[in-house]
Amino acid sequence: MKNKLIFYILLSLLFVACQKDVDEVITTNDIQDPIVLVQTSIKGSVIDEDGLGLSSILVNAGKESTFTDNKGNFDISSTEIKKSEGIVTADIPGYFEGIAASNFTSDGNSFVEIVMINKGIPFGFNSETEGLLKTGDLEIQFPADKFIDESGQKYEGNVEVFNRYLDPSDESIGSLMPGQLISESEDGVAETLSAFSMMALDLVTEDGEPLALKEGEVAQVKMRIPDELLDRAPDEIILYIFDVTEQKWVQSGSCQKEGNYYNCTISGSGYYCCCVPLPSICLSAQIFNSDGTESCFIKVTIEDLTDNFIYYGFTNEKGYFCGSVPQAADLKMTVKDHCNNVVYMNEIGPYSEDHQLPDIYLESTVEEYIINIAGDIVNCDDIGIEFTTGHISITVPGKLTVFPTEGPQLDLNIALKCLAFPSMDIQVFSAVESTVTPVATFSEFGDIQLGLMQPCDMLDDFFNVDIDGTSYFTSPTQFYKKDNSTTNWYVLEGLSGNETFKLELRNYNGMGTYSVNAFFNLNVSPQSSTPKITTSSPDINVEITIDDGEYIEGSFTGIGYDIFNQQRMINSSFRIKKAP
Predict the structure, then answer these.
(1) Which CATH superfamily is domain 367-458 in?
(2) Assuming Cys at both sites, which of 193, 421, 482, 508 could form a disulfide with 490, CB separation 3.0 to 4.6 Å?
(3) b/e per residue, 255-270, with b = 16+ CB within 10 A?
(4) What is the pTM of this model?
């Protein structure tokens, strides 16, 4: 499985300092199986699918809640939470509920990362008529006159259906899916789940109020099975829904295989998974740097080499991780630092029972690099007018990250946990003048003083969109290729501090016209005034005029849809950087 490399820049000193002061409080519930709770602290970040931090997001962990700061970070200093596979949730309009799971300990602060899935534009129909939603990945048939509102009363009016197919063969599934792939059998035995198809669904009124189908009524759903999983997909499979109260996947019926789809029935909103249950064990380990210090808050991924299972999480402040994995399975364990360097990889297992791996010592030490980036920004054409809005881009090998700037003073703290301090390219962009500073490169560790910065250069790469006569721009840009069910799936992106323009061409063949398999999303943060737009072919036609190996240039025109499902005329031109 291959996908875009994700680089984790943790923007607060909170996330790299391996602190020591934690008190332990353990309570149990002796009704049925014991539930062990721990008193601990949790730090984390809430990001979108492009890795940009989302501010003012409500985060809940146990009985405590807080909001993310302006860089998407949060800190819950003390909460009582389920020790095994406890969940942390995040919620904001325009996104599906974000749910991350971890195993928490009372002797170490934990870190979680919540990736929010943009809902996009809803499919709409009147509740008194049947509704048929069809995409390449999903088909949902809704019955007529069968909806109820949150109070249980019959609903009459327009139904909005937000939906997102989740490809379980995609490498990013570990960060997108809710919680971990765990459940329990009917007799209470813990199981891990091998996923063959997944989706997120949200049924609401025009005003955003929750809807469901009447008791006993169902919608027919077809979910695509990825090509690489099709041969192993069973003819009948269990359908699971993620239960936030139970904090795990629970059974919700069964599905039948029809060609390359699973045919299922559902009754409401939620995350759904067509999964095969597997016997599970708990696998844990403590990871140390080569100098003997704990390697805290680094990413751990464990893949089943036979079944389609993935564990995804981070070590805590003690370098410890613990998670459920399939029993008697050949596994591959991968550990990465924040610069996406693979610092450890090993094939392990199979294990017949809960297993604590021997202490793992990395060949090198993952260092903590805490730096401050400061400077003064002035406009190019008139330094007497104060600089207002723009963004700063920070590029390290393998990843481009963008942060908004407000006002003429730049003062940004960033923290990295990497094997070595990476070479860092920095540019500042003016949102008013659509200009940029020359690239400033820094390769030595230490605070960075940029001095006086004037964004006067014309943009070398850009992604511009005109919506109903108003122009919006993003720069810098990036390109990546997805390894998915199609062989040439290109993604072209433009980034700014609060917006991401994303064009996906799912059967790319170089220069030419694309009237099918083209999808555009204009994603915005809550602070942005740019309209949120989603569209796809045949509502847009894309023309690629240049692909010289260094840049991809082109344009598209057509109709887009805003969050109210209103049509908006859109035109775009782009010059996307293809080469690193």
Answers:
(1) Immunoglobulins (2.60.40.10)
(2) 508
(3) bebeeebbebbbbbbb
(4) 0.71
